[in-house]
Fold this protein.
Amino acid sequence: MQPRSLAINRTQHRSRASIPGKGTGRILYAVGLLWGGVLIVSLGLLWLGGAFEQRSGYSYLLPWCIATGILLVSPIVHQLYTDTFDPFHPVVFASWTYLFPGFFIGGLALIFGISEPYYLAYVLDERENLPLTFFYVMLGFAGLWIGFLLPFGRRLGGAIAKRLPDWNWRPADVVKPGLILMAIGLVNTILAFTFGILGFQRVDEIGAYDGLIYMLSLYWLEASFLLWLFIFRSERFNAIHYIVLAVLIVTSLTKSAFQGNRGSLITIFILVTCAYVMTRGKIGIKQTLAGGLIVVILLMIGMVYGTTFRSIKRDQENISMSEYAAYVGDTFSAIGSSNVIDNLSKGFGALGDRLDAVSSLAVIVSNHERLSTLEDAYGFSNNIWNEFSTFWIPRILWPDKPVTIDPAKYGDLYFNYSDNAFAVTPFGDLLRNFGPWGVPLGMMLLGFILRTLYTSLREGQPFSFWRAVMYYMLLTSVSYEGTYSATIPFLVKVLLIAFTGILLIRFFAGPGRLSMSSDPI
């Protein structure tokens, strides 16, 4: 029988790990301070260099940009004020991971001339369509928030939560099944790179099994999160923990290098941070400052690496794994041979363009009506209805199933460039398909779905390995950079594949114990 004080301590530990508090909000203060410092220094240099005077024609966008920023940050401010802050709350997560950086900081980058994409020339009547772009962002985000706040999702999520199984695993129970799941995911990840499904490459024709291989590669992500939960949940470390930690670090960094994109390191950071918050609950001052500094450093490293990799590989041609690995090595050599100033300059230049989500969305706002007649010829008109009506049929059963929107064809039509995947955003996709009213209504539906998932898996729930894993997989499957047509279908697919992973873990780990998973390994 446990001493009463130990039982109370463990109960309090579980409570802190499952209920978000204002301590976790400090990470955003650190990130905000660091980003603010970078922004102030950059704008000061631009001002001294006369860049602002040259681009003063965009100063009329400043009120629109500020209004958008205030709306996007308001859920965060509200939670901090009410002492309920949760950085992995669905609406808050959408704000700080993409929407706020892309449309507020990116908007400032556009206004002050840090971002000067070539496709701004495709925005007709800038004084009308650029402010209208900010308006649609505010309209869509408001719809997402309203859909989340409506009681229907909370009620449905509560009903689902009561019917979910109670699999209360100890940390020791998840190590073996987690490594098995990771092995399956790694095998499929290697296959995905080999067939051109992952990385900076593109297949000419989608194969019948390509989708299945990609979805099975997500087992690596699911297992990684589970094993990070194991690391943070354990009260004492031994040799097993260090082995698991080494496997996680090596596989994560290797995959990031082969991905060749600019955001892989941030994805790893979000994964680790989410696991930490879900198990520990609060973040101290030291972790806060370190986390904020890490975000900025990883962004810069990602920008330098991703830009260098793509400039060396040049195109998205599908190549062998040995050739691909050679490009990875050449990228590290090129970065190592450059001086620090050149790398930082390249990183800042790429960062400004990467953060600016306003310009690419403005191209859609400006041209969607004029180009709507050509979308049918390019094969992606009415892509939302087409995707929703066909995604449930596996390509294995329908090998010739058409792709509802090909990024290359979309880029060719709207941006006159097919070798890049331009940001569409759910707002732009809804506007293209349904017009202005489709933006808030479609985002309300997404908000309802996210509230259902949040209530059933996280809100007010005690810690559970399997619920935490499912919640992370579903939360991060929603892309605010891609199309709306892919968002909900992909969410359903991730739900199915992630739950099959949980069933595999359940097979090896058993149902667990009656007490919650707080026992040391």
Summary: The chain has a mean pLDDT of 84. Residues 148 and 447 are 4 Å apart (CA to CA). The chain is about 70% helix and 0% strand.
